[in-house]
Each structure stands twice: as structure tokens, then as C-alpha cells.
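Our preliminary data section would be incomplete without showing what the modeling component actually yields. Below, a chain of 260 amino acids is followed by its predicted structure, encoded as C-alpha cells that our downstream tools consume directly.
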Amino acid sequence: MNRYNLSKRLEKVANLVEPAAFLVDIGCDHGFMAIDLVKSGKVKKALCTDINEGPLKRAKDHIKEYGLEKEIDTCLSDGLISLKEDFDKYNFDSCTICGMGGLMGVKIIFEADEFFRRMNCFYLQLQSDIEIVRIFLEKSGYEILFEDMVFEDSKYYTVMKVKNKENRDISSVFCDVSFDNLPYELKRIFESLNENDSVKYKYPYYEGMDKETYEKFLLFMIDKYTKIDSYLPKDSDRIPVINKERKIMELALDLYKEKK
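Predicted structure:
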């Protein structure tokens, strides 16, 4: 039997997961997240889904290799779309969505909102547009309980622990917005904020976070944007955007130091 190791970012997610009766891993890739959670005893039963047959076959092979066919099932699905007709059959109380873009994660939650409303918690490790994800969750009545950061392969990653805060139908929140237009609406909301109000969506700090990684991340980003500014022509129309972003970072760093 081959040994496996979760990446640092997936290990960070796995450490956040609370005990669950039935977890679904969306975009499961190799299936190691579900395997690790079942083997550790945190999760009793799991379902691995992926939109592509190749990763799902790898997951099936690994599940069989570890003798977990009874505990872990697989399903070819775009998010949870394929399961919506059998909504009552799948009583998920937990979920992981890792390794994909932020807008794709938003789409998955938006399209299967009824599943996510009844979960105890779900966990996100998304690669981009994280401020948009935070705005979407807040506007939709979800609550981010905790966030943490991890540095791996020269990149910084954010992980989130989320729960449903308000019983509401997501269609009533974005009743006049189709999903195709939702990313633009969310970006419009963020861009309308001033620097102070932007901090909680762009660079929030949570008690218990990896302080060293968070601080290094902010310093890295400030340095990056300072260098970009120095390379731009003085009349570049990008300068106001760069300056605003850097101001948000500096405010976040000041707030962090006050709490440190």
C-alpha cells in the first residue's frame, strides 16, 4: 500500500474539520482528503465528487487501495448539481471545497444552496478572488467562523471554516441577479468600499491564526505593490488602484499589530 501525504494547505483544512457523520469533498482530485478524514476517525462516511473522470478514477483507485469502499463513495458531478434530484438521500453535515478559483467556489454554493444551509460547517480553500468569496458569504447569510493561512510552494493560501447563520433562500438575496452577473455585482460591492471598510473582506485577521504567516503575507504584499508602483509611469491610470490596495494592506497590518 502506497503512503500518502496531504499538502500543507489540505492538511490545514483537514485540521479544521470537526467530527462529521457524512462529508462531501467537492473537486476531490486524488481523494486523499476524504481518505485522511475517514482514516483519522473524524468522518464516518464521505462522498468524493469531481467534474472530471480522470481525477475521480484516481480517487476510486486510492479509496480501494486503502480498503475504504464501504466508507467512501464517488460521484461524477459539477459541484453538487448531479445530486440535487436526490436531495433527501444525501444528508451531508460537512463539506470541503479546495484547490479551485474563488468564483467557482461561489458558483458551487450558489447552485446547491439548500445542501449548504443544512450543513453544520463547510470548509473552503480557494485560490483567487477571496474578498469576493467573503462578500458573497456575508450577503448570503453564511458566517465565517475562522480563517487561517498557510505558505506552500512559494504561495500563500487561505482556508476558511463556514457555517449557515441565517435561514434564508439565496434566491431572495440575489433575486435580481443571475449567476452570470453575480461576480460583477460582488466586485461592484467591494470596489464601492473605502479602504477602512475593505480590510475585513481583503485581509481579515482571526484570533488563533498563524500570526507569523499572516504578517509575512502582508509584508510580502506591501513590498510587491511598492515595487509595482515604482515601475509604473507617473501618469499611469493604475497608480490610484495600486495605492488603494497598498493602503488597505497597511491598514490591515496596523490593525494586526494592535491586536498582537
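The radius of gyration is 20 Å. Strands lie at 20-26, 43-50, 72-76, 94-100, 121-126, 142-152, 155-164. Preliminary results of this kind motivate Aim 1 of the renewal.
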